[in-house]
Design goal:
Blueprint (H helix, E strand, L loop, with lengths): L1 H26 L3 E6 L2 E6 H30 L1
Antiparallel strand pairs: 1-2
């Protein structure tokens, strides 16, 4: 019984997050000019948001993994 309830809650959460992502993407489809180092790039604002989020997430995972690896090495 609890397992079915949890699956329903997870499904609703995923649907809500997907709907929010689609709304954010739809509202930010206008092109913007971006300067990355010496390169001038024109891309949609939504793509820029996705790339920024992805790079931030990857950086967080790498930094956290580095700290955890050092912590396990000390023990």
């Amino acid at each position: 019984m609890k397992n079915d309830k949890m699956k329903t809650v997870k499904l609703v959460a995923v649907v809500v997050l997907v709907v929010l992502a689609v709304i954010i993407f739809w509202q930010n489809k206008d092109p913007v000019d971006t300067h990355i180092l010496l390169v001038h790039v024109r891309m949609s604002r939504a793509l820029l948001l996705i790339l920024t989020f992805g790079l931030g997430f990857l950086t967080g995972v790498l930094v956290a993994g580095n700290f955890l690896r050092k912590k396990h090495a000390k023990t």
